[in-house]
Design goal:
The protein is of the alpha/beta class and about 450 residues long. It contains 10 helices and 17 strands. Helix 3 packs across helix 10 and helix 5 crosses helix 6. The N terminus is likely disordered.
Length: about 450
């Protein structure tokens, strides 16, 4: 697969790069393995749903973190017919302390169960929130990062208890399943945004995880991502304002900041993340640059796949079925042995200067499309994407003429049907790099 030009970290010295690579990951390991006598789970009830699906509800206490007890309302969706009874999907989601079963989370869980024909463990309240002065989501995570920098206490970064809650959910699901004489031995883990971040780190922390499907978190290698975002947008996205407001997005050369971001950056754990990985991204995600995944794609180890949802934002509000289909595909691959397509691509230029994308696929896809977008700047977040068909085959090519001004981006979307299962895969994005005149 062609190695795209890597974006260099602005102002990053060789010494800093080496220090980042050589640091220990003991902080996360020590926290998740630390015994916690507050861990407990309790069966609550079982409800019947259409299509012979049962949902078992558990009350879970995952841990006590900083003297705060974390509790979760866990749902285990159980289809009557399961292709691989020893495996399950862990779907990590959000919500607040005290929330009951959220219908939106269950709806996604049902869709995953349908695509995988597997049990799905829905873990909400990750993180437990509000905490630390009524803070939630990124505001809460940023607060814990600042507290780490103030104290050097490596239990402060909120991603650590978030990962531990996922591990404890797998423990509880296994214990419950064992009582029902239906043991679970293997998991595929998924989640979106901060829960996608948790998905990466959970995969790096627990050998029961056989594949991961992180959603809308294509931002590994944080120092390079931040430099690239400034280069593309001219400023940081307003979506990461909780971090910029606390001064967390720069000065990575400082040892304490170097250590913090190393501990929570999934790329630091790439030697462990060798299991199959299916990344699920939106082309119009307001958090990240369009080509953010290219910064680290070549650094990943083991099987790696991606699907871009055209015109979808951070909530994957368009073509959402692509996301649950991808979770199903990586499940059938890692758990059931379904062969994934051998897909490669090359970005280049035609003799006339147009952008050329050549794709090779074995087997040939069921259908293929070339998606393109234009932008007057390097900010594609609000740019509409349009599709044109590619002739499906083992080799496909499409080209896009350069606009008279501004920038253009392109990717290919391939639809497959393997062993009767339909899903989509994408190529990497390529975008031109014309900066507007000042």
């Amino acid at each position: 697969m062609q190695m795209l030009r890597r974006v260099m970290v602005l102002g990053c010295t060789l010494a800093f790069a080496l220090s980042w690579a050589s640091q220990s990951n003991a902080g996360l390991d020590e926290y998740v393995k630390k015994p916690d006598p507050s861990y407990a789970w309790k069966y609550v009830e079982t409800k019947d749903f259409p299509d012979d699906v049962k949902v078992h509800q558990l009350s879970l206490t995952s841990q006590t973190w900083k003297d705060i007890v974390w509790t979760h309302v866990v749902s285990i969706i159980e289809p009557k017919v399961q292709l691989h009874p020893d495996a399950a999907v862990l779907y990590i989601t959000g919500g607040k302390i005290g929330d009951s079963q959220r219908q939106g989370d269950l709806a996604v869980g049902f869709a995953i169960a349908k695509n995988t024909k597997s049990r799905v463990v829905v873990l909400p309240q990750v993180p437990n929130q509000p905490l630390l002065g009524n803070k939630t989501e990124d505001t809460l995570i940023a607060e814990t990062f600042v507290r780490y920098l103030d104290t050097r206490d490596e239990e402060w970064p909120l991603l650590f208890p978030m990962v531990k809650s996922a591990i404890r959910a797998m423990d509880a699901a296994q214990a419950f399943a064992k009582e029902k004489n239906a043991p679970i031995e293997r998991f595929v883990v998924t989640g979106a945004s901060k829960r996608g971040w948790t998905t990466w780190l959970t995969g790096a922390s627990d050998p029961r995880v056989k594949a991961i499907a992180p959603m809308v978190i294509p931002t590994l290698n944080f120092p390079a991502q931040n430099a690239h975002q400034l280069e593309n947008f001219g400023k940081f996205s307003e979506q990461v304002g909780d971090y910029t407001a606390r001064g967390l997005m720069d000065r990575f050369e400082l040892p304490e900041r170097n250590r913090l971001w190393h501990m929570v950056d999934p790329l630091s754990y790439r030697d462990r993340l060798t299991m199959p990985k299916f990344q699920i991204n939106g082309t119009n995600d307001p958090y990240w640059t369009l080509d953010s995944m290219n910064i680290y794609w070549d650094e990943l180890k083991g099987p790696s796949y991606v699907v871009y949802l055209p015109n979808a934002g951070h909530g994957l509000d368009k073509n959402r079925e692509y996301a649950t289909q991808a979770i199903g595909a990586i499940y059938h691959n890692a758990i059931g042995g379904m062969a994934m397509p051998q897909l490669s691509w090359k970005h280049g230029d035609t003799d006339s200067g147009a952008l050329l994308l050549t794709v090779t696929s074995h087997p040939a896809p069921k259908s293929a499309q070339l998606w393109t977008a234009t932008s007057p700047t390097l900010d594609f977040r609000k740019s509409p994407w349009t599709a044109s068909p590619l002739k499906a085959g083992t080799t496909m090519a499409g080209d896009v003429k350069l606009p008279k001004s501004g920038n253009v981006a392109l990717l290919a979307d391939l639809e497959y049907e393997i062993d009767g299962y339909v899903f989509h895969m994408s190529t990497q994005v390529r975008q031109t790099n014309v900066k507007p005149e000042k």
